[in-house]
Fold this sequence. Notes:
The protein contains 3 helices and no strands. Helix content is 79%, strand content 0%. It has 2 domains: 32 residues; 34 residues. It is mostly helical.
Amino acid sequence: MSTAHVVDAVWAALALAALVVVVLSASGWAGVARPRALLRAATAPPVARVALVLGWMWLGWHLFAR
Length: 66
C-alpha cells in the first residue's frame, strides 16, 4: 500500500465522518448542534472570523496545495 492510498483512505474517512455529523445534526438526535448554530457561535467576535479565515487558508495551503 502506497502513501497515496493511505492519504486517500484518510480523506474518505474524514468525508464519511463529516457526513455522519451532518446527518446527526439534521435529525436533531444525539445532541449534535446544527452547522449554522456552530458557525454563528464560532464567528460571533470579529477576531474569531479573522482567525477562522486564516486557519482555513493555512489548511488549504498545507493540505490541498502539494
